[in-house]
């Protein structure tokens, strides 16, 4: 009898964590490495949020909380959905988890049976297919195209739906491409979904507040109220409020699903950290002034990176609407010989040669299900981004 569970054979470790670790290892050996792999803002959590956590500790808010979250946070979530998305939920229709990750995992755990299919547009956030597989479901990948700015078309969605489809995962702005769907682009997808009543929608709105220019964020139920009874709208404080380490995510959706997720969480982690929940109350209810300030900084970085990458030989970089990632193609370098003498056959070869030669850590596109591309996280200073892009230009020019 094998000791480890069969389920383990269905998952692989996170490629993004592996790249960050490789960059750390090289740095420890004294190499000058610029890490552009991490998916977290480089800003500190705003002071008003930190203070709310300190106040919570001093008030003794240090005990177990209700599994689905403290009433104050569930009320703040209800208010957030109404204020920002025009959506009506009751507190009972909300749930707080230990990061957005736990929300997603428990939604799959609560609903997937063997053979159930989950549509995952590619490129995708690395954890979606692994979570689906761990929970016994089957991820069904639908590739997008760079010429469509990595956005799924209605036709491709329609073709992917089968009688076994349980969920469609939607993520806009996207990790890893940064692509965000406009009202009309999303309406084309919701028109398809309305016709397939057995398909549920899991919308991951984690990057809602990180969109640039005059782009207007929209979420599926806002556009198509008919999807209200079969959509789980997930969000969190990690990215918009620079709170990745606090581990608070949340969702709202139909009561029976929320109750099932609550039951699973009750036998798992129980309520999220009490102090972090109080910090999240302040994040959602308090001043939002730093959001436009941070957006401006991210937008400047995006423009810098897109412009510099498009000046590199063999690299083509679309300009995404949101998040803090770009997802350029390195197709023009496939088949060329790197300065080390190695022929670049895949995007994985490209990123590993780039790291060895120039000390720039990025993540290969095949880890996100679509290549030959690579993902750059621009959540770091302009100075470092400029230096990293110069190195990428030099590396690309040296490939013959
Ligand atoms: C698209 C997407 N969804 C969800 C998450 C998870 O967020 P959290 O840190 O709240 O678990 C991430 C984090 O990288 C993400 O990129």
Description:
This protein is of the alpha/beta class and 400 residues long. The chain contains 13 helices and twelve strands. The strands form three sheets. A seven-stranded mixed beta sheet has the order 2-8-7-6-5-3-4, sandwiched between helices. Helix 3 packs parallel to helix 10 and helix 11 packs parallel to helix 13. It is globular, with a radius of gyration of 21 Å. The termini are far apart. The mean pLDDT is 96. The structure holds pyridoxal-5'-phosphate (PLP). Pyridoxal-5'-phosphate is lined by residues 39, 99-101, 125, 171, 175, 204, 206, 236, 238, 244, 249.
Q: What class do helices, strands and sheet pairing give?
A: alpha/beta
Question: Sheet with the most strands?
Answer: 7 strands, mixed
Spans where pLDDT lies below 50 across 5 or more residues: none
Helical run tally: 13
Shape: globular
Distance between the termini: 52 Å
The pLDDT mean sits at 96
Let me know the number of strands.
Answer: 12
Small molecules bound: pyridoxal-5'-phosphate
Helical content class: 40-55%
> Which percent band covers the strand fraction?
5-15%
Our Rg estimate from Cα atoms comes to: 21 Å
Order of helices and strands: HEHHEHEHEHEHEHEEHHHEHEEEH
The largest beta-sheet arranges its strands as 2-8-7-6-5-3-4
């Amino acid at each position: 009898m094998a000791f480890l569970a069969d389920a383990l054979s269905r998952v692989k470790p996170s490629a993004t964590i592996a790249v960050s670790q490789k960059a750390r290892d090289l740095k420890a050996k004294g190499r000058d490495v610029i890490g552009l792999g991490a998916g977290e803002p480089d800003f500190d959590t705003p002071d008003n949020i930190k203070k709310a956590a300190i106040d919570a500790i001093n008030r003794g808010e240090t005990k177990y909380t209700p599994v689905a979250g403290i009433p104050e946070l569930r009320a703040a979530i209800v208010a957030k959905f109404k204020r920002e998305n025009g959506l009506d939920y009751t507190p009972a229709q909300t749930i707080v988890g230990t990061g957005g990750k736990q929300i997603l995992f428990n939604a799959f755990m609560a609903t997937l049976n063997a053979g159930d299919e989950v549509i995952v547009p590619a490129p995708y956030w690395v954890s979606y297919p692994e979570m689906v597989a761990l929970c016994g479901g089957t991820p069904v990948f639908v590739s997008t195209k760079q010429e469509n700015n990595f956005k799924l078309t209605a036709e491709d969605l329609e073709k992917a739906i089968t009688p076994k489809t349980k969920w469609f995962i939607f993520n806009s702005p996207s990790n890893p491409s940064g692509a965000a769907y406009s009202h009309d682009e999303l309406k084309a997808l919701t028109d398809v979904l309305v016709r397939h009543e057995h398909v549920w929608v899991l919308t991951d709105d984690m990057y809602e507040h990180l969109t640039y220019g005059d782009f207007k964020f929209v979420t599926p139920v806002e556009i198509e109220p008919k999807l209200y009874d079969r959509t789980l709208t997930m969000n969190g404080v990690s990215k918009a409020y620079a709170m990745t380490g606090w581990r608070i995510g949340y969702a709202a959706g139909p009561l029976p699903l929320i109750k099932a997720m609550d039951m699973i969480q009750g036998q798992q982690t129980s309520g999220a950290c009490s102090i972090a929940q109080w910090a999240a109350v302040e994040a959602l209810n308090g001043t939002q002034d730093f959001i436009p300030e941070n957006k401006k900084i991210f937008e400047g970085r995006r423009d810098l990176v897109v412009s510099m990458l498009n000046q590199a030989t063999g690299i083509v970089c679309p300009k995404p609407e949101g998040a803090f990632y770009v997802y350029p193609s390195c197709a023009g370098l496939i088949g060329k010989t790197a300065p080390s003498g190695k022929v670049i056959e895949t995007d994985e070869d490209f990123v590993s040669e780039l790291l060895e030669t120039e000390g720039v850590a990025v993540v290969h596109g095949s880890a996100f299900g679509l290549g030959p591309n690579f993902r750059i996280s621009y959540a770091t200073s302009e100075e470092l981004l400029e230096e990293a892009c110069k190195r990428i230009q030099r590396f690309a020019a040296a490939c013959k």
